[in-house]
Design brief:
Layout: E1 3-5, E2 7-9, E3 16-18, E4 37-38, H1 49-56, E5 61-62, E6 69-70, E7 94-97, H2 103-115, H3 126-160, E8 162-191, E9 200-242, E10 247-299, E11 317-332, E12 339-344, E13 357-363, E14 368-373, E15 377-380
Antiparallel strand pairs: 1-10, 2-3, 2-4, 5-6, 7-9, 8-10, 8-11, 8-13, 9-10, 11-12, 13-14, 14-15
The structure holds zinc ion (2 copies).
Length: about 375
Amino acid sequence: MAVYEGKWRCLRCAAVNRGRNLNCLSCGVKRSEDAQFFLEDDAPELNDEQLLQQARAGADWICLYCGTNCRAAEKQCSGCGGSRSAENRQLAEETRGVGDWTEAAQKATRIQNAAQHHAPPNAARKPFFSRRLIKFGLFSAGAVFAGFIALFAALVYISTLSYAVEMEVSGLEWKRTIALEEYKTVTETAWEGEVPPKARVQSSEDALHHTDKIATGTREVPETYTEQIASGTERYACGQTSKKNGYFEDKYCTRTTYRTVTKTRNRTETVYKDIPVYKTRYTYLIDKWIAAGEKTTSGTDFNPQWSSDFKADNVHLREAERTETYSLLCKELGGNNKLHKFEIAPEKWSKFQNGQHLRGKVDFFGDLISIDETSNGELKAEK
Ligand SMILES: [Zn+2]
Ligand SMILES: [Zn+2]
């Protein structure tokens, strides 16, 4: 069983001493019952026979008269010379889990109390710095967030700004389109059951319509898997016992060990077969209206026209749809001469005329937002 030398911290001057020391090497005060032993994680295993004997002798006893810790082997108190008797208490050994004896566990309670009277140990400063770092981080994040809010507010404000401008109508940009359809005989194909009533069937053939997946049976497929099997027991250090004399000893526990075994087994898998399904596909002729291009006219005057460059008899040729777009061209007055294009609804264009004066509003960047034509009320730009 491995034995280690622990350490203890002087309650008067906070100096750390080795387990073997009965007096503080820094201030000379005697180790008292209240001194807490601790074990550092990287403490080396003891090999020195004399120290091992000291460790195994047993826990310290406390002098009745002066409270000094005395070694188990000592018959007289090293502090006052008083003799050991049945009334002298012996410290009780104590066991904790692996790592639970580290100084960190001790630091939180006893050492911080001592720190109120002495200079704080180095280890106690670290959380102070990290707390300041967290505060600084939170402050920075808050500042960046406030910056974004301010920028957003500025953009919202700018978008609400508008300035009145005087304008003159300088033209109308128009475009009118007629979509045409012609009645023609076309060739089409369709599956059985989907051929339209007036179709004139020309030919038919059997063709692959789709494939069905059909389960035809099962088969066994071998596969490997792993299993954990108990293979025995092992002893391991599950804690450390403070001998209450400056030394510590490993405590051992036993546990089951396992090994990984690879095994094989059969898995049942369904087997499928692809079954092709054929259907009759018909090729037929049919008469129908189909798209036959567009007739578009456009200009920048106040005289929009629909194209008359076709003859719709509704037997061979017909109109399908009419679409029209209009934009008012306005010139800013007052020396700026900036040209604006303002899209308006088809029913509105005829209320304007060339050379007409208009008031309008432009935004922060000088783009036209709306026009105000007294008889029409205000028109807003479509964005
Ligand atoms: Zn001391
Ligand atoms: Zn004594």
